Amino acid sequence: MRIGIHTGNIIGGVIGTDIVRYDIYGPNVLIANKMESNGERGRIMISEATYKLVNNSFPNSFDYEERKEDVTIKSLNDLMIKCYFVSSKSNQEDSLEHLAFVSPLNMQNPICCSEKCIIEPEENGSNNEE
Question: What is the DSSP letter of 53?
Answer without folding.
Answer: H
